[in-house]
Amino acid sequence: MPATGNQSDTTCFAAALPLIRAFAAHLDALHVRVDPVAVAVAMSTEGAGGMLLQGIIDDLTRDADECEARARSGFVDFCARENLPLDAARSDVRATPSAEWHVEIGHDARWMATYGMTADLLVASRGTPGDDAAARSILEALLLETGRPLLIPANGSAMSSIPERVAIAWKATPQAARAVAFAMPFLSRAREVVVMTVEEEDGRRDDVDRLLSYFARHGIKAAPERLSPSNGGGAESLLAAASAKSDLLVMGGYGHTRLREWVFGGFTQQVLADAPLPVLIAH
User: Fold this and answer.
1) 256 burial class (0-12, 13-18, 19+ CB within 10 angstroms)?
2) SS3 226
3) All domains of the chain, ordered by start, with CATH?
4) What does the alpha-carbon distance between residue 237 and residue 245 come to, in Å, rounded to a whole number?
5) Is 91 helix (H, G, I), strand (E, B) or coil?
6) Which of 45, 46, 193, 246 would be a feasible disulfide site paired with 222, CB 3.0-4.6 Å?
7) What is the CA 138 to chain-centroid distance, rounded?
8) What CA–CA distance (Å, rounded) separates 78 from 85?
9) Helices 36-43 & 50-81, crossing angle to 10 degrees?
């Protein structure tokens, strides 16, 4: 989980807490400091004097120290308030909830992806108006470069418990199938599961019945719901239905690559920007 020192950290902590409690999980929080030398060199004009460059480095270092202190303080306070053992010995964290603090220096998205590859579940927010570009970069890295599921909390509302009503945005694709597989611990505990599909113009099969049979073999009772696109498109219809009937939306994340830059597809873009409920997404 990213620990940025911004207000969005509170949303992530609150979303992670019921999962930590329910699964006796271990929470890793990662704060990534900027590299003041690298940033100063990039910011400075060609031929900038040594004193000017050193002044930029000093300012960046001071800002990084303050940001790290703020992020760590928020995380330590959260762990103390919720009685989560912080930085406990590894032999003590197998059966009870625990937490650990990590700090790295460099590019935040790269470090988040590196740590994310060895996590069961990633939790990251959409960010705040002041850091939405940085938050978006982290979301893209976590979703597209880790191979792990990503939980994005709803802005302004905390998850107080494990979701009891889960909606699945189903499309017969590997991404959606992977999201369903990752969501099985949530689905097996849910009171209601609904499989939502949006009618495709080309009439392609959605294979909902096959998915329902798969769930039945795992003891999960799910109901289908087929939606027609509204004037705002399929994503708008799906979000409206899911937010009215569920506490969590499970979906696949779709994107493409161009010159090593990942860009989310339009449907995923809209869900990430507008979803009024938590989203569990996998690529």
Assistant:
1) exposed
2) strand
3) 8-152 (3.40.50.620), 165-282 (3.40.50.620)
4) 13
5) helix
6) 193
7) 9
8) 11
9) 140
- What are the start-end ranges of the H helices in the chain? 8-23, 36-43, 50-81, 108-116, 132-145, 174-187, 208-217, 234-245, 266-274
CB neighbour class for 139 (10 Å; exposed up to 12, middle 13-18, buried from 19): buried
Which pTM value belongs to this model? 0.88
DSSP sequence for 120-149: S-EE-----TTTHHHHHHHHHHHHHHS-S-
**Segment holding 282, helix H or strand E:** strand 279-282
Q: Token digits for 120?
A: 């069961």
Asked if residue 99 lies in contact with residue 27, where contact means CB atoms within 8 angstroms, the answer is: yes
* Structure tokens belonging to residue 84: 């989560």
Structure tokens at 217: 């073999």
Q: Show pLDDT as tens, one digit a residue, over the chain (283 residues).
A: 999 998 889 989 999 999 999 999 999 999 999 998 888 777 765 555 667 778 888 899 999 999 999 999 999 999 999 999 998 656 555 678 999 999 999 999 999 999 999 999 999 988 766 666 788 888 888 988 999 999 999 876 667 789 999 999 998 889 999 999 999 999 999 999 999 998 765 555 668 999 999 999 999 999 999 988 777 677 888 889 999 999 999 999 865 544 333 445 667 777 777 688 999 999 8
The residue assigned the tokens 């108006």 is 129
Asked if 9 and 27 count as a contact pair (C-beta separation under 8 A), the reply is no
Residue 21 identity (one-letter amino acid): R
Residue type present at position 267:
F
Residue carrying the six token digits 């650990």: 100
